[in-house]
Amino acid sequence: MSSAVRRATTLSGLVALLALATGTVSAHVKYVTPGSDPVEVAVFLADALTNPFNLAVLTAGALGTITAGLVYLRFRPFPNDVRVFRRTLQSYEDRLPWLLRLAVGLPLVGAGFSGYFFSPVVQPAAPVFVRLFGITIGFLLLFGFGTRLVAAVGLVSYLVALAVEPALLLAFEYVPGFLAIALVGGGRPSADHVVASMAADGQTVYSRIDPFYRRVALPFVERTRHLEAYVPTILRVGLGLTFVYLGVAQKLMEPGDALAVVAKYDLTAVVPVAPELWVVGAGLTELLVGVLLIVGAFTRAASGVAFLLFTTTLFGLPDDPVLAHISLFGLVSALLVTGGGPYSVDAALHETASRTDTDVPPGPTKGD
Fold this sequence. Notes:
- The chain is built from 18 helices and no strands.
- It has 368 residues and is mostly helical.
- The radius of gyration is 24 Å and the shape is globular.
- This is DoxX family protein.
């Protein structure tokens, strides 16, 4: 198995390097930015944050968010509705592998046919290998065939390419996506599930001619089964880092491009505030969502806000590349199913609440 993994790792690394070396990478072209003049970050932030109206709106938003969180923790409104909501979402966990495969496989197929490597900002001049990579990895994930190995190849390819082209940080959500798929496998429905069922049945001809299932697949699954519990942690931390990067690096640190987008789509006509407030508000919102996901606080609520942000972007920016966001849509949806998972504030709060409930002394009996 180690030899196969080494060969797969070497192959994926060569694919990534070859794809990026065959042409010029358009690293400075953003998804929808029409082009802009450079804007000094410090001057932009100083102007935006010293404006009394802007400061009042941002302060009110921050206080409102904090107050809403504290009120919810104190009063826990609609407990039965929340309980049924969580229980229903958790009942979908058996479909989590399928959701993850769709979230990563579909945009990779689209990237392959479109000729870009993970992100639309990385488009080699000779995209033959990029097309083959995206289509092959994407379709194998969609079919669920060799799922764990394919996810490992995809992950290594992305990381090798990222070392060469930092613009791929725009597609960092592929890291938690690939890691999660490598841990949960193909699930069902998948080609892996069909093959495993045939191999596990000792009466089939296939079970007698396939040495891979018992010698490699089963031992690997048994050794890594305990790690599946950390899939929610991997997803929320990876997505959280993605949101922090998008909010800080792509908006607050590049205000010129962000202001150009506001002007291009006349967003100030939708909400009549200054363009600077649009940029700062969007950046801080994505930063807040990212931090909440990283620490695992109000995970499902933060995921819901993220889903709303994506939906608003797709409907508000008509020429935004939809395929580039499918991975984010799918992975955020996966977090709606799993919740925060281990090492999260949500888990700690749940444990504290459960311990408090068990420590409450029983009420007086009729004989008291």
